[in-house]
Amino acid sequence: MQFPIYLDYSATTPVDPLVAKKMAECLTLESNFGNPASRSHMFGWKAEEAVETARRQVADVLNCDPREIVWTSGATEADNLAIKGAAHFYNKKGKHIITSKIEHKAVLDSCRQLEREGYEVTYLDPSEAGFITPQAVAAAIRPDTILVSLMHVNNEIGVINDIEAIGKVTREHKVIFHVDAAQSVGKQEIDMESMQVDLMSLTAHKVYGPKGIGALYVRRKPRVRIEPQMHGGGHERGMRSGTLATHQIVGMGEAYRLAKENMVEENARILALRTRLLAGFKGMEEVYVNGDVDNRVAGNLNISFNFVEGESLMMALRDLAVSSGSACTSASLEPSYVLRAIGLNDELAHSSLRISIGRFTTEEEIDYSIEKIKEAVTKLRELSPLWDMFKDGVDLDQVKWAAH
Amino acid sequence: MAYSDKVLDHYENPRNVGKMDDNDINVGTGMVGAPACGDVMRLQIKVSDDGVIEDAKFKTYGCGSAIASSSLLTEWVKGRTLEEATQIKNQDIVDELGLPPVKIHCSVLAEDAIKAAIEDVKRKRDSK
User: Domain named NIF system FeS cluster assembly NifU N-terminal: which ranges (chain B) (predicted)?
Assistant: First the structure.
């Protein structure tokens, strides 16, 4: 085993060696280094061909037309382009947007910006299991609603929204539907034939591709329009200017090809590992899985060990690369807004770990992690006055704490 | 976040972990912080008749720096008089452990905890 063990695949993934090989073929003088926009010579044509192959590979994952794929620098840019781009284009129709409280910051902050510009945003509450229901969306739609933006899979708790059902609602009301799918590619089936999604944000680095590249799916039928946010040479049919990064795009294409090819098999293997991990904590007291257990992507386990603070837990787990919803691990000193929004109290939010399993995780690593986590939780509970009180039968909710 | 060696040492080998009998008149308990804020410290001291802290115990729910701050404090107060113990300032803890600005509140909490424990034992004795 190599230490530390990487269990943070929801944060990012290593580039698959097959992907890295393809990317390296698009850099130097001897290889495919040309500008895909150069129309006058072979170097440009070759680069353009590589970019279009990658575009097809990405479109294949979505079951859509390659012309519906617009390259961006990542999902954050795609979210910005989709939300601000659609809002700006359709502002004559209305200025109301619907999203949820557990979206990624790229979506929430884009919405905040639009609020400053005079738009109105409704932030839906998720259910305790972490879902946004089609009913909740339908209830929030107003005559002036122009856009609904929701994520397919949540980055912290891994739960899967029913995009197909929500898409029916938005289409029926003729509202643009944007979906952030950064966490779902390669983990969940995506089909633009059956999903009535108008805009979808994608990224490469969560699926064993490189960082710094992503895409926005923009539906052609019925046609969706967006205002560009980046102006320049008119690349990507005017929607996103900037010289295309051939090596990055080729890397994303290859990563998506592999994701499609291996999805079923890979998810089964990863799910078995997660089941093994969760089973390893059986018998421990006061352990809670955050978010729906069944309807979540295979690689995600978000779990709280009550009466143990997340940062100190991670300190004990220096052999493991995991993340926590604890305030102490964030710059803002606030516990995870996602966990708070699904109704966790502060204690449980502070006590949470997100363990995400991926392509290169082994059974041996899982077994080692179980032992390490159990050991650390036991040690820290011995140190915890809250655990003492719990064991003495004190109801912690009834204690008057001196807040500070 | 990178931790100083001293924080790591206290975290790995916390000193004086434990619980004393709160009903003992010579024991003072200071419990500060709140679970909602991510840290709760319980610091207890046992004081001799002539006002010297004979023993100190702690338990802390919180980050590594909070654990280290309370562990260090138990080491420091042992053998000191109550008067001397009140002189300990949070900045002393910050300096000793090399706490970064974002962790200064852990040292403040530790200072609050020892003060609360001293108050507690004084109050108990006065009401005897």
Answer: 2-125
Give B42's contacts in chain A (Cβ within 8 Å). 385, 388
- Catalytic machinery residues of A: 328
Residues of B within 8 A of A386 (CB-CB) are: 35, 40, 61
B106 labelled catalytic: yes
Regions of chain A short of the pLDDT cut 70: 326-333, 403-404
Is the Cβ of A80 closer than 8 Å to some Cβ of chain B? no
Return phi, psi of residue B34, to 5°: -150, 145
Q: How far apart are CA A315 and CA A312, in angstroms?
A: 5
* Residue indicated by tokens 């140190």: A383
Please list, in sequence order, all residues whose beta carbon lies within 8 angstroms of the beta carbon of residue A61, skipping any fewer than 6 positions away: A185, A186, A190, A256, A259, A260
Q: How far apart are CA A357 and CA A7, in angstroms?
A: 5
Q: Indicate yes or no: CB of B61 within 8 angstroms of CB of A384.
A: yes
Which pLDDT value is given to residue A400? 82
Q: Does domain B5-122 have CATH number 3.90.1010.10?
A: yes
Buried/exposed A156-194: b ≥16 CB within 10 Å, e otherwise: bbbbbbebeebbbbbeeeebbbbbbbbbbbbbbebebee
Residue A364: alpha-carbon gap to chain centroid:
27
Task: Read off the pLDDT of residues A303-316 as tens digits, 9 standing for 90 and up.
Answer: 999 999 988 999 99
Note if B37 is an active site residue: yes
| Cα B116 to Cα B125: distance, rounded to the nearest angstrom | 14
- Note the helical H segments in A281-362: 310-316, 337-341, 346-350
DSSP states along A137-184: HHHH--TTEEEEEEESB-TTT-BB--HHHHHHHHHHTT-EEEEE-TTT
- If one looks up domain A5-10+263-390 in CATH, what number appears? 3.90.1150.10
Alpha carbon distance B94, B111 (integer Å): 11
CB pair distance less than 8 Å for B35 and A401:
yes
Are A153 and A159 within 8 A, CB to CB?
yes
Chain B residue at shortest CA distance from A399: B34
CATH 2.60.40.10 fits A17-259, yes or no: no
Judge whether A394 is closer than 8 Å to chain B, CB to CB.
Answer: no
Handedness of CA A230, A236, A239, A245 (dihedral sign): negative
Chain A residues closer than 8 Å to B18 by CB: none
**Candidate list B18, B22, B25, B37, residue with the active-site label:** B37
Rg (CA), chain B: 14
pLDDT of residue A32: 97
pLDDT greater at residue A127 or residue B36: A127
Distance in angstroms (rounded) separating the CA atoms of residues B128 and A308: 37
Give residue limits of the domains in chain A: 5-10+263-390, 17-259
Question: How much is the ipTM here?
Answer: 0.93
Could you tell me if B81 lies within 8 Å of chain A, comparing CB atoms?
Answer: no
Domain ranges, ordered by start, for chain B: 5-122
